[in-house]
Amino acid sequence: MVHRITRGAVLTLLVAFAADAAWAQAYSAPKARRKFISVSYDWQFTQPLHFLEHPVQDLVGRPVAASQFEAYDYRTRDGEILIDVLEFSRRGQGAGVTLYPFGVSVGPALALRASFEDLPTIRIAFTGNGAPPHYALDGARAYDLGAALVVADHSRGFGLGSHAFVGGGVGRIKSDVRDGDRLFGEMGGGLNSGPVGVELSVKFAWNRLTDPVDHQFLTVPITVRGTLTF
């Protein structure tokens, strides 16, 4: 009799365990609702990249070398022209709007972004035999259009969520003295609670202008971005 009761109890426990396991596999927590638009404000700190080659060497039109322990920053390799970078401003602001055509919640999503950002003020002085005119890029702003792949893990309500993204695009440059265009790639990620979020991104931008000569410069803005997503 005791043996039958024990077998019955074990069988009951096994059935209960199997039912509980099946329920756990079938159940999944509700996903956060999809969001379709995000607006942002950006604070940037921009680093130059390969500044000797672009734009300094582009503007001079001959090989350039960096100087050490001198009153100027660069000189042509023949020593004829001395080059002094008077200003390269690093801090700037920007803003943008990101659209998620199919929504974003949990998993991968497509993002389309339109934005603008300040470009550095650049002032370069040239002196010597055959030196070009002084160079200035003032009031420059880039207007960008891009696309990105976003992988998100958003939470319901005001729970803490996260996302990461990688993408790229094209842009136009407008300034007080000259215009141009550019290509860029960008990657980053962020955290959000409800509609409020913060992102950190790094962008590699190849900026091209044609006045006074065809020249380029590479910028790497590191951006902290405050976002509202709906």
Short description:
By secondary structure, this protein is mainly β. It contains 2 helices and 13 strands.
The computed structural class is mainly beta
Helix content: 10-25%
Strand order of the largest sheet: 1-5-6-9-10-11-12-13
Alpha-carbon Rg, integer: 28 Å
Which series of helices and strands comes N to C? HEHEEEEEEEEEEEE
- What's the tally of helices? 2
Shape: elongated
- Catalogue the unreliable spans: 1-6, 9-19, 21-27
Mean pLDDT: 90
State the oligomer.
single chain
User: Percent of residues in beta strands?
Assistant: over 45%
Question: What is the first-to-last residue Cα distance?
Answer: 65 Å
Quick one: how many beta strands?
Answer: 13
* Biggest beta sheet attributes: 8 strands, antiparallel, barrel
Core attributes:
about 15% helix; about 230 residues; 5-stranded antiparallel sheet; disordered N terminus; 8-stranded antiparallel barrel; mainly beta; 13 strands
Description:
The structure is a single chain. With 230 residues, the chain is mostly beta strands. The protein has helices spanning 2-26, 52-60; strands spanning 35-49, 64-66, 74-76, 81-88, 91-104, 106-118, 122-128, 135-137, 141-153, 160-174, 180-193, 196-209, 215-229. It has an eight-stranded antiparallel beta barrel with strand order 1-5-6-9-10-11-12-13. The longest helix has 25 residues, at 2-26. Residues 1-6, 9-19 and 21-27 have low confidence and may be disordered.
Describe the secondary-structure layout.
Blueprint (H helix, E strand, L loop, with lengths): L1 H25 L8 E15 L2 H9 L3 E3 L7 E3 L4 E8 L2 E14 L1 E13 L3 E7 L6 E3 L3 E13 L6 E15 L5 E14 L2 E14 L5 E15 L1
Antiparallel strand pairs: 1-5, 1-13, 2-3, 3-4, 4-7, 5-6, 6-9, 7-8, 9-10, 10-11, 11-12, 12-13
